Amino acid sequence: MGMNVIFFIWLACILLGMPVFASLGLASMLHVFSNELNFYIIPQRLTTSADSFPLLAAPFFILMGNLMNSSGVTQRIFNFANVLVGWMRGGLGHANVVASVIFAGMSGAAVADAGGLGTLEIAAMRKAGYDDDFTCAITAASATIGPIIPPSLPMVIYGVLAETSVGGLFIGGFIPGFLMALALMFMVRHYAIKNNYPHERFPTLRDIWRAFIAAFWALMTPTFLLLGILSGVFTPTESAVFAAFFALFLGLCIYRELDWRDIHKTILGSTETNGVVLALVMTAVLFSWNLSVDQVPQSIGAYLSSISASPLVVLFIINVFLLLVGCFMEATAAMMILVPILFPVALELGVSSIQFGVMVVLNLMIGTITPPIGVVLFVVSNVAKVPFERVTRATLPFIVPLVLVLLLVTVWPPITTYLPWVLMGVR
Q1: CA nearest 153: which of 182, 130, 134, 173?
Q2: Based on the structure, what is the number of domains in the chain?
Q3: Same-domain check for residues 325 and 213
Q4: Are residues 27 and 141 in the same domain?
Q5: Rounded Cα distance, 119 and 117, in Å
Q6: Is residue 30 located within the same domain as residue 48?
Q7: For every residue of the chain, which 3-state class applies, written as one string?
Q8: How many Cα atoms within 13 Å fall on the side-chain side of residue 151?
Q9: pTM score of the predicted model
């Protein structure tokens, strides 16, 4: 049975509602049995994929994000962001974006941003008189910054699949993440002038100092992570362990808003999420091995090369493809399936693995705010109690500045490769 048939079986399973990891595993097993390959390759590939040191970062980053949402960190971050930029026209919209940039340095997940920080942002913006369309749209769009600025769970997974430096990917996301924030703040200003949104009073130095002191330890989290990685005190994987324990320390000892009963629930929830991620990784690696047996990546690479010899043209085609995939598939699952196929193509074109990694993650994060499977849209809709269709319509214009940043990342490699090369010697 050829891989094309197996692929359609997998797609049919997805459409019938089967979990992604189960459909990947079933399709892979069918391919192994139908081609009379060695059965022992199945447990071997599954266990080998799970036996990965970089992948250990995943459960700890998940735990850290959940602890941050339960320990009062999000409120302090939002208050600090509001003091910094709330005086601008449409102040709470700008604070929404800046808070997401800060929170990105802790959670590394768009859903955590939308569900945790988004709850506070939506309530504050409603109270200040912002309409629900704009409030939901900027909350959803700013959440996509989370996995671009380090730490980032999607980049950990990409690093494992592509055998690329996770530290280099983390550093490579800094400039694109800040460009995303800047582009979204331009959109906020446009809407603020158009709709005459309010702004806060200009802060005094005393106001800024008080907000900074209140949020100090929360703000130190990304600083400690970055300094630890760059100085070699710990690896990106070990930084996840440090971050999880530091979040626990903040909740219990500094802010004292984390209850021991909350810890139990948080660990259980994080374990459940990590179980899904690990199952996806294991079955996706098995699926990609079956693809390589039938030389699918090589065939796709040859086809793309036949379209154009220009790396830029091929990268644009890949971008369009990933954006379309992001509309119908959850980001992690899409990455598991597509990175093993597309990464060899990028290497053939001479594209940096760091640049390609940031490009893939950014594409799929845009997918989290596009219908019909925009998971961040569902989260914001649930938090704000606004119909999904209305949130979707309001968010669509905010996709434009994010796509512009994606194009910059595609056409100008130094945006993603300069800092990793200067700080870590990684390209």
Answers
A1: 173
A2: 2
A3: yes
A4: no
A5: 5
A6: no
A7: CCHHHHHHHHHHHHHCCCCHHHHHHHHHHHHHHHCCCCCCHHHHHHHHHHCCCHHHHHHHHHHHHHHHHHCCHHHHHHHHHHHHHCCCCCHHHHHHHHHHHHHHCCCCCHHHHHHHHHHHHHHHHHHCCCCHHHHHHHHHHHHCCCCCCCCCHHHHHHHHHHCCCHHHHHHHCHHHHHHHHHHHHHHHHHHHHHHCCCCCCCCCHHHHHHHHHHHHHHHHHHHHHHHHHHHCCCCHHHHHHHHHHHHHHHHHHHCCCCCHHHHHHHHHHHHHHHHHHHHHHHHHHHHHHHHHHCCHHHHHHHHHHHHCCCHHHHHHHHHHHHHHHHHHCCHHHHHHHHHHHHHHHHHHCCCCHHHHHHHHHHHHHHHCCCCCCCHHHHHHHHHHCCCHHHHHHHHHHHHHHHHHHHHHHHHCCHHHHHHHHHHHCCC
A8: 35
A9: 0.79
Q: Is 180 left (phi over 0), alpha (psi -120 to 50) or beta?
A: alpha
Indicate the burial class of 200 (C-beta count within 10 angstroms; 0-12, 13-18, 19 or more).
middle
Amino acid identity for residue 226 in this structure: L
- If asked whether residues 19 and 99 sit together in one domain, one would say no
Same domain, 27 and 84: no
Give me the pLDDT at residue 408, please. 94
Supply φ then ψ for residue 177, to 5 degrees: -65, -45
Does residue 21 sit in the same domain as residue 90? no
Domain match, 286 and 312 both: yes
Clarify whether residues 4 and 70 are in a common domain: no
Average pLDDT over every residue of 261-279: 75
Residue type, 311: P
Tokens at 410, concatenated: 């595609």
Residue type, 408: L
- For the chain, what is the mean pLDDT? 80
Domain that holds residue 3: 1-39
The per-residue pLDDT for 296 is 67
Averaged pLDDT, 89-105: 84
